[in-house]
Design goal:
InterPro entries: AspA/AstE_fam, Aste_AspA_hybrid_dom. The structure is a single chain. It is built from one helix and six strands. It has about 140 residues and is of the alpha+beta class. The longest helix has 22 residues. The chain starts with 13 loop residues before the first helix and ends in an 8-residue tail after the last strand. The relative contact order is 0.22.
């Protein structure tokens, strides 16, 4: 599957559609070249591995008591370090990120995830290495 975004629910955006078309075309080009026997050299790529889902701070009744801090809003895939602003309470208190390592939040404040009790997803940046690849079919 391919998910391209961010894009609000029920909205069709030309720029996002164009990105999706390019991704699908690259995927199909790869399949064609692989089937033709092209050898692909070893490579390394940075990816983001999901660590955990993070909920909004809530009171004892389960009601949200803080929102995403303005400095975190729209910062998907950007580094979040210990002490960086994370949430802002309705009283104006900043709740900082408290973690042992830098993380890369994504799906920040997505409307579709409110009901799932998810303020964002913490990811870590890792490197994946692939050996050379070639079809065994001649």
């Amino acid at each position: 599957g391919v998910e391209v975004g961010p894009q609000p629910q029920g909205v069709a955006r030309a720029d996002v559609l164009d990105k999706m078309r390019k991704i699908v075309k690259h995927g199909l080009d790869f399949v064609q070249l692989f089937n033709e026997g092209k050898e692909f050299p070893p490579c390394t790529i940075e990816v983001f591995k999901i660590m955990e889902k993070v909920d909004y701070p809530r009171n004892k009744n389960g009601e949200i008591i803080a929102i995403i801090h303005p400095k975190l809003q729209d910062q998907d895939w950007q580094p979040l370090k210990n002490g960086d602003p994370l949430f802002l309470t309705l009283d104006g208190e900043v709740i900082p990120y408290q973690g042992n390592s830098t993380v890369y939040p994504t799906f920040i404040n997505e409307a579709a995830y409110y009901e799932k009790k998810q303020a964002f997803v913490k990811t870590e940046k890792i490197k994946l290495t692939a050996k050379h690849l070639r079809s065994s079919v001649s």
